[in-house]
Records
---
Amino acid sequence: MKRSTRGCGCAIAVLVLVLGAGAIGFWKFGLSWLRSLPPRASGAELQIHVLDVGPIEGDSILIISPAGKSVLIDAGDAGKGKVVLDALKRYKVEHLDYFIATHPHPDHIGGADEVLNAIKVGTVIDNGVDLSAPAPESGLSGKRGKASKPKAPTPAPSKKGKAKTVTGFFDEYEAAVKQSGAQHEKAQPGKKYDLGGGAIFTVLAPTEPLFTKDQMKAGGNDTNANSIVMRLDYGDFSMLLMGDAEAQTEARLLSKDVELKAKVLKVAHHGSKYATSEDFVKRVKLEAAVISDGSWNRYGHPAQVVLDRLKAADAKVYRTDLQGEITITTTGKLKGDKLYEVKTAKEATSDVWTGREALKDDSSRSGFIAYGDFGPPPKEKPPKQKKAGKK
């Protein structure tokens, strides 16, 4: 008697359908999931150099990827371009793949024109904010090209006749970008930049609508709050680069579905009291904090309250005003018991956990426009001695 194979054929057909559906599902969802995974660390060295552009206030960070790609984030204040160019020469950087201007304040891009005029740059990224345009009405984002330039008050005298108006440094920056021939793009949250060797940069902020002065009544500065914030990942190593982001920026990031946990935090706004909130520090779960600030700054950077928060988080703190240039290196993998190494140009001669006293307030509510202190802060006057009374 011949055995029936009808049931077996049906089972095979069902199996084929299941396998086919699985293959389609993997093609549709699995491949995108695989592509979303960060690349493996190559094992070559990633370098992060937080440059010392003091003693005035400023930021400039040089990143050299495991594949040799280079990124410069900000370029310090006017007159500090030479310091940055010397660092590029020291680290044998002859071409910048990316220059990132976190926001239009002179202590971040005052030296950018000198750098852009001296070295080839592939792509310039900024936040699209034009400081020379009038402040937007509440709820508007203040994008470039929407309004003419206002009359600006005259700032403190600057070196070499640069930045003759409050926004002069920005005009020089834009002119240098155009002359450089670099590709110019606006930072887009969520966009990733492959630096090669497994290192990835991701833009986290700013997000639309941009902050306005009306939203800074609790403190902080709207131009700072719209800083570019980026995340750097390489294997098991991660770092948040906060620009001059304010507490309002941090609150917006905390409300979004973004990865904020990181091994190292480049502290926002030079350690200002208007940033590095307690909730943000708790979410980041950092191990080390780097503060780029100048010993001549008059804004109380870093603030004692911020240092206290970092200490409570059991983080190790490094400061350019006390330790000079700060270098972080990593292979993205544990090397012995270390994932990364931090070296400073010099030993601190005073306590890194002691903040500075503020002589000025750099918040929008105080009428702050842009930094303009180029010399050392005034010396404290000795107390007057009382004249001895006549007998």
---
Amino acid sequence: MACAVCPPRRAARGLPAPGGGCLAETMTTPPTTGPGAPAPPRQLTPDDVGTVVTRHGIATVEPLIRPYLRHTPAISLDRADFGLSPGPIVLKLEQLQHTGSFKARGAFANLLLRDMPAAGVVAASGGNHGAAVAFAARALGIPARIYVPDVSSPAKIARIRGYGADLVVGGETYAEALAASQEWAAGSGALPIHAFDQAETMLGAGTLGMELAAQAPGASHVLASVGGGGLLAGVAAWYAGRAQVVGVEPEGAPTLTEAMRAGRPVDAPAGSVAVDSLAPRRIGELTYAILRQNAAQVLLVDDDGIRRAQEVLWETLRLVAEPGGCAALAALLSGRFRPSPGETVAVVVSGANTTAVDFGRAAAGAGPARADGAGA
């Protein structure tokens, strides 16, 4: 059932055309299939995705998805507030977005830009993307089936169930959940919505960069967490060299680091305190192409640094974020990223689906949950 308070669903638009031509009008990501379906357009490749995931493309998509999103705030601080040397810092508080993360942007972009089959959509996720697709599907009256691995946090599972999607929990990793979702899509005709390696997903994520650039126009560096690379690719595509975009990922899940070493996406370890949001098996083929095109950089942080960033964010601002949402801030707090004194650094904080604060436990007198989000 469609959400009574959301705008009515618009007809699918298709990918925006590049600023200098119409290549995207004949290309898309995996098409709708089924009896009577039109001939599928040509699928985007790493060689041509950069003609679509651009500032022009993001600016075209933004007004389409805007009615369904929150314009999340950015707060300006002094780095001395975090015990660092003085200097300006801007935090983009994307954990205040619908479903608790930036993923809602890509979910709505997919569901509004692509033709929807009667079988609806299917997605695999560590949790946040699944929650976003479930939320968007409910708002637009589209059936949704979500696959998550066993490591998905209880908070994320509860979100997905609360949005009314058909939820399947199983497998040890995101890769196993993705394989199960692909099998379901092949048999059911449901449209797969990829968590990161899809043009529509990156275009939606890029609208965060568009907002942030207006909120922090003097930023010389933008730090954001990296899992599959969808957020970082979208942000990098918007900035397009106007600021240095830096991805931050856990040492236990170095997907972008390993890809840059190899010169292409390769399998990487998938472990970390942020395993349910920043640990796919490898960076996306399309996201990697966008990141290389826009000269994004990458840094690694350890789990202790991520946990400390969670704690500092709470102690300093009384803001709660899950481990994956704190990786970018951890790079700054740990000294892995060292800005010059006068440089303005913008940091994306995204991901609020955690049990780090549990009011039920507090009411029962059991004390707070652990700061890593796992509970006691």
---
Amino acid sequence: MYRLNHDEGLCANCLAVACLMKCQYMKFGDNKEAHEEMLRLINGEDTRILQECQTCYACEEYCPYGNHPYYLICERREAKGIYTAPRPITKQWINMTQMQGKYMVGEVKERAISLCYIPTLGPLAQGEIFAGLSSSVVFGAEFMCPAVHTHFAKMSVVKERLPKVVENIVKLGVKEIICLHDECYGTFTSIAKAYGIEVPFTPIYYMDYLLERLRDLRDKIRPLHLKAAYQRPCSNRLIPDKNRLVKEILDFIGVELVSRTYEGENALCCGEVIRSISGYRLADDIQERNLSDMVQAGAEYCVFNCPACMTVLSEKAKKKGLKPVHIVELCQMAIGEKGVG
């Protein structure tokens, strides 16, 4: 079984404890208290971290050493049998994402698009932006990034399934895989690296691809002149270097990214996983603060990256007067493939 590449000495000697001090859901009196709790975590002792972590992934971004505090929390939770959600929910997620041989593979080339196991991603991968690739797609549990199981402290499932997902993609002869799901790219580049799981193909972040194609299609772009707020998903914390691409893309198509409280490192997740962990009150509070912040910042549109976030927040965004849209759809609007509305 694969083991987490975690340097205990780095955490033991880190007095800033940014992973905990910056956390939006756990509060510590000072760095000394946070450091003591981190030492307990490292040593496999009981610590409030195991009870209070909301699985927002943010500490992966906050750690300046790339030492994977979030994965360590998940490992310790599973070792102690401290699961984040009721066992039926945890088992349900394991069962409904089980590989069963019911997958779809298009006319796959050396470069392919991964739709993960999310049907709503299929319609996005159409049109001129994806010219020549729309049929080169893979979809199904066999190609699904298993990062979702970290939310339920089931790292054993992640370590069991990720090598199989990689193997399934390699068998297709794929050299490059465009990850249309943010979490897939984070899985192949962050989780795989943290556990020493080899990824023989090249994962391509779909926003890198989008920006490349927009440059190719610059003559067709008509600036949208819209104001938008961005809903940053939890999985983007695994790949913080890619967060800059949102503004670069929006600038390119004439969309103003409004400045607001809950953005960048201070972003709030969609809150729905937290609903399973801590109940309705906290989840509703997160969603209310987040959407109200978008409105107060003057946004007209709520731009999504993750399809799960979009499913959860779209109707609530509409009730606030915001128009929900995926960032791919915005790009399609800019080149005239979709109407502005």
---
Amino acid sequence: MSLSEMSLMKRLLTGAAVAALAVTLAACSDEKKEETAKAPETSQTTTGESASSTPATSTGTATETSTTTTTTTTTPAETAQKPAAEVPSAEGDVDMAEVLKPGALPDMVIGEANAPVTIVEYMSTTCPHCAAFHNNTFDAIKAKYVDSGKARFIVREFPFDPRAAAAFMLARCKPQNPAELTDAAQYYPMISMLMKQQETWAAAQDGREALLQMSKLAGFTQESFQACLTNQKLLDDVNAVRERGAKEFGVAATPTFLINGKRYSGDMSVDSMSALIESLL
């Protein structure tokens, strides 16, 4: 390995303290659903508390009834249907014709080209909110809208830290031939694995070893892993995708979704994104 390659690997995979901080703070959007009077923050290095969600629990008590009479009562709460999710509010407009122009890297597209709804997600692989979306929402949206031809989905790289950039590079490289780029059929499963195992590698003390072990599950060898992560052009292209999103489309937090000419920031539940998509059909 040359000195320049060693330097690139060091920049990508060392500095566990920086990466650990990025996991919980830097790479994610503010909690936009908090009802506060604070002005929105746009700095990419802004820190904020991660959302804490407590699963709702339902409690009920069994009521003993007489053996001679049985009374069944139904309360309004028991019969009320789940309220429809509100359509998320957009934060701004974007020109989708410009958004969909080719960039530094080929777009990772799933879905029909003529689908009435186009969703472009800017994400960081070390962002917990991005992981929450991909682990809890993405599969349901894909099954309901992408696979049915109603929407197409595009993931674009927006790394906030070197370890996130390294993970994206690995998603872009073919494990057997890292000089070639993957297609969507290979890219999305790698992203899914990285999101599901985010806590395992994103804040690990030894970032190189953690990512190497994850990559081996996708078919990388130590040699192809090293070749991918020392590809300076690929790193430059990943960063160019991020810079374009920030400069041209106002992306300042992850995840950010550009959907049919509107920009939305923050994680979305299945119900929220479904309501948004339905409003556009």
